[in-house]
Request: fold
Amino acid sequence: MSIRREWKFGTHSAHFEQPDILWVSIQGETTLQDAIAALELYKELGSQSPFYVVTDLTEATSFEAEAREHTTKSINPSWFLGSVYIGAGFVQKALAKSLAFVHAMTGRLTFDMHFVSTEQEARELIARERVQRSTRVA
Reply:
């Protein structure tokens, strides 16, 4: 039996699903304090083993400039196997892609980023990624 680990930061929450998925739900505005807490969580998990992060943005409203700057400077792409965004709007996609672009230009981008509409699509995408990853390794 596995123990479900859960976290709450601001109005947001996260839970880890074995073996390697962190599900994050963003509710409302993301402040600098929220970004700091999320990055601490990513670092804690990613230093143990890389994981997929699935972020549900359907209830997200805004991302403070200071939070974006902190995230850009502090995130370590090696923590992640991949990133999946559920329900991202145009602005959210642009922000995520700009962060990926910065890391790609520095040679630090080590994972794929995807946008889907539902949790089921996220699960199917990760299942395909796992198969692709296992065939590359084998």
